[in-house]
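S.,

As promised, the iron/sulfur cluster run. Input:
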Amino acid sequence: MKTIIVVGNGMVGYKFCEKFIAKTPKTNFKLIVFGNEARPAYDRVHLSAFFENQDAKSLELAPRDWYTKNNIELITNERVSDIHRKSKTITTVSDKQFSYDYLVLATGSTPFVPPIKGIEKDGVFVYRTIEDLEAMLAYAEKIKSINPKGKAAVLGGGLLGLEAAKAVRDMGLEPHVLEFAPKLMPRQLDERSSDMLQNKLESLGITIHLNKATSQILGENGFIAGIEFNNEEKLAVDMLVVSAGIRPCDELAKTCNLETGIRGGVVVNQKMQTSDPEIFAIGEVALYNEMIYGLVAPGYEMADVAVEQILGNEEILMSAKIDMSTKLKLIGVDVASFGDPFVSPDEGHAIVFENKAKGLYKRINVSHDGKSLLGGILVGDAEDYNMLHQIYLNGMTLPENSEDLILGARGEGGASFGSAMDLPDTAQICSCESVSKGSICNSITNGTCNNLKDIVSHTKATTGCGGCKPMVVDLINETLKSLGKEVKENICDHFDYTRQELFGIVKIKKIRTFNKALDVCGKGDGCEICKPLVASIFASIYNDTPNKETSIQDSNDRFLANIQRNGTYSVVPRIPGGEITPEKLIVIGEVGKKYNLYTKITGGQRIDLFGAHLNDLPAIWEELIDAGFESGHAYGKSLRTVKSCVGSAWCRYGMDDSVSFAIKLENRYKGLRSPHKIKGGVSGCIRECAEARGKDFGVIAVDGGYNLYVCGNGGATPKHALLLAEQIDGDMCLKYLDRFLMYYIRTAAPLMRTAAWLDKLEGGIEQLKKIVVEDSLQIAKELEKEMQGLVDAYECEWKQAIENKEIKTRFKHFVNVDDKDDNIAFVPMREQKIPELRQ
Amino acid sequence: MESILEKYSKVDNSEVKIWFKAAMVTDFPENGGACVKYKDKQIAVFNFKRKNSWYACQNLCPHTLEMILSRGMIGDDEGIPKVASPMYKKTFSLETGENLNGDLEAIATYPIKIENNFVYIGFSE
Ligand code: SRM
Ligand SMILES: Cc1cc2nc3c(=O)[nH]c(=O)nc-3n(C[C@H](O)[C@H](O)[C@H](O)COP(=O)(O)OP(=O)(O)OC[C@H]3O[C@@H](n4cnc5c(N)ncnc54)[C@H](O)[C@@H]3O)c2cc1C
Ligand code: SF4
Ligand code: FES
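Predicted complex:
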């Protein structure tokens, strides 16, 4: 048996282990892994997610027992301090000795902290580990309690610096980015795209300072209070995050005389071997082609090469050229750069499209013969990144007018280049896990895989940064289609039907319980996918509230409230159209006070009360219902809110009383269960203060009636709603809405919002107009009738719940005692409370 | 926080020293769960009517460390009875406690029996 010691349990060190055990029977080798950090390896790439949920566990790449299960000895919190090449042993800080046959250095890098005067002060941070983030969070809280308008600066305007700026902004501090160069992301962007990005970031409240050399950190008593620049200008800040580049952790290599680079990094060859052939270096510590690669994808490839080399597959070498294309993963900011973003005039020329008003900048660099793509930059809209990146990587021939690559998406037409199926088989679709198009398509054609789930578990594609997912899905669907297989979206293992098919069966066979549905057309005992889906179908056909068959409801529906991260619930009374009397506001305030709830105005024009114990829900609702409130269905896949602007009742531009119409619509469709949630909006004029076009349905008052828009979406993939009918009156608007909503409810896939549904509807909005407005399918009357039936059958489910003693007992946390859940704890936050953090 | 997880460990039938009389059969929803308090422990109990079986396991979701498993939906994964945590839908076998859709540590399961319309859970201490 041979021993491999891996020094460093970061992303690349972990990947080495994963690849190793995937390729070799466990018995031949013993793997020992040392990690300097307290936790097993975690996903550093998505480190910023920690600010949102503070859930270290969800970042973990594999739990501790994964290592045990695979016979890997993982020793965390233990730094390797020396390598003795002669005796082939290592020692650790606590003076333990281990021998190795092969040694793999995966020690990564540390943030480079420039030697600026005062940089050691408290309040100066780096951004690399979970501990760094925890320390930043704690410090930010402290600052905010002293100065609610606290400021934080980030030193460095590169990829990571911008991510850090977004993070400090999310922490509630005023963010400033300090960059030495005259542009942002100097390695990836040219000046014009940097300008565009700067505008975008400044509109998000991030102030950018370019051409700024920091000369010292100011502040007394050891705390940072400001920054001074070379030109003696000053900026008062309460915190600083240094993101000025990385330095490879190569001390171990230096002390045992392995060859290192002038500016650091352990020199490796194409086999990932260091100057000692039994010692390998991979990831951010390795100096390959005289470069340190600060990205995971090259690190993962290095891990793979090292594994193959140790297993004797000497022909597997590191690629000669490393792709450094990147996409910034800040929410709300699309920035990508691929290949050579700058290109010199003797190699090729740039084609640039810029629209300042829309914040768009697209640049592609094309060879002089117009045949190949050398690189490019996208700001404002990076949707085409995956495809352009593939064209670049695979050296695909460009269309005759290469500008079509960035201008092709004009109008509603879509991009001008072909589908993912046009790529060569060798095209690397998932660069994180090096999965080629060929291996995805072949596993489908040869029957190894049949769907996305199979592909993910078989190839691991999409499990790294996740950026490749849309392309992987396209490839799977197209390949299945080319095999003549129907791309069928079966609900789950228990029902071999799509939602639409099951909807029809339930309706025709008049099925009314889940057991019956399983017995008639399903198999097994159901699961967390089909149960709520069938419940939603029952609700859409019979308007059964979730009180009818509680055990098949999603947990939120079962308890008629949204579960929060600590197992407590939120309470959202309906406030139709956002209109509320002072008396009702007082009731909400009193209930909030009595039950010690955190209150917040939501983005849906109403009020959310958070942190209610399960046991308290019935009492809280009793008081609210007494005051005339109803359930807001914030927990259900059902109508949420119909937002309104104040409209002609007050506004000098109003064309109509939008509040009245919004209330009418909200009351008509409240409680309506659907494949996903539905939101509406009514604006009194085209200034659109209710953001109606961001909703599933939106009504805008115009001269001569209403314009009705449908299938808009905010959320993860924003889409403006499209015009369905113009200048119609209120009654017509209701008619069209009844038809539209009912048709959506009947035909959409589970958890598909109207915007996504329209995308899939053959013929798009024109087809929808035919069905809804012209009644081309001759089902309009039927749809209207069904909707009216549902409207008439509406009942507030919370009222049902508190009036029925049996239903009420559902809300006890324990069946055998009346206690509340004693595992729940809160901490104070700005005069209210929030859940205590879990480790 | 580790300590709260350590409170729960699997009890085999042979290790049962105490049969705790938890509540009436009718206190539990059919094909769903409810939570039982025993000393300082929270135990999720499921009346899997479709299989005519009862199951007991820790109420603590090992992923979120919240006391919520009893509020999850039950069902089967290729015949294995399972519960899905209501927070992020991690699923666990009700027979072995194994995490069926991930690498989380298994949850603790407990013996359960029905006598004279009462539900009893088996503990070793
Ligand atoms: C409370 C609120 C945030 C706030 O403090 O303002 C909120 C909170 C949640 N939103 Fe939201 N959303 C809230 C307004 C919005 C809005 C704004 C709006 O409605 O105008 C949007 C964008 C508009 C849209 O939906 O098109 C929004 C887009 C989402 C999405 C993304 C949907 C998408 O299509 O991409 C989700 C996730 C989902 O539904 O799958 C989501 C999911 C959630 C969930 C249910 C997440 C969860 O499962 O716990 C949150 C539940 C909170 C709770 O317990 O009540 N929330 N959410 C807002 C409640 C509005 C209300 O009164 O009911
Ligand atoms: C906030 C952030 C965002 C990022 N975003 C992206 C992105 O979007 N895309 C992308 O491709 N890359 C991104 N990266 C970079 C990516 O995280 C790194 O490329 C990757 O983590 C490198 O892996 P590694 O294993 O080489 O180093 P690391 O992950 O740093 O792991 C090295 C480990 O070795 C340990 N160690 C060091 N010395 C010793 C010793 N002597 N003994 C024992 N253990 C030791 C360290 O403590 C560390 O845990 C991001 C990085 C950060 C910080
Ligand atoms: S409230 Fe909405 S946007 Fe905010 S964290 Fe929850 S889901 Fe995300
Ligand atoms: S490219 Fe990152 S997961 Fe596929």
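Chain B touches chain A through 46 residues (CB under 8 Å). The mean pLDDT of chain B is 92.

- D.
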